[in-house]
Every structure is written in C-alpha cells, then in structure tokens.
C-alpha cells in the first residue's frame, strides 16, 4: 500500500498545509512495514489537481497537518483515506498509522485564502 505524506524538508517533516507543501514523501508499505520511500516535488497547487496526481500514483492514504475541504472531498470520492492533524517526522507518522495509533483530527480548511491559518 502506498501512503503519501504532504511534507517539507525534502520529505522529512509533515507539513502544516497539504496544498502548499514542498512535496510528498510516498512510502511503499507491506505487512505493516515501510519497504521503500521516494520524495516527489509538489508539481503545483491548482484546485483539484493534487488529489488526482496522488491517485494516479497509487496512493491509498494521505497524511497532512491539514487540508482544504475540496481536496479532502476528492480524496474521499477516490477512496483514499485522509489523515489530518499529523505533525513531526513523516516516517514516524507513517509508522504510527501502520501501528493504528495515528488518528485523524479532521482538521479541514474551509476558506482557501486562509490556508496559512488552518487548524486554528
């Protein structure tokens, strides 16, 4: 299963806001373990584009600090699990998810122009 983490610092840290991340750390997992990872730079923030971009890469779970309602809705329509409220190191967030201890806070931004204040 592929798990993407909206990240910064070349995929090391979970970013606060999905659409404005530096890129995505995409982790390949099998039997509850990380087997591989790659960093994919953010190709650009356009409404509706990034969920499709990640879906096309086979991502089944997206982890982020927060994200807009539109992106969350598209992920849900595609059957991709959305986990928001994550912080810290991307690899640790994925391991916590695999262990069943990372739970979504449901932090969704409703006003796109206030993306820098998500989760407040």
From TrEMBL:
One short Pfam name that applies is Nitro_FeMo-Co
Residues annotated as domain Dinitrogenase iron-molybdenum cofactor biosynthesis = 11-98
State the source organism's domain of life. Answer: Bacteria
Q: What is this protein called?
A: NifB/NifX family molybdenum-iron cluster-binding protein
What species is this protein from? Caproiciproducens faecalis
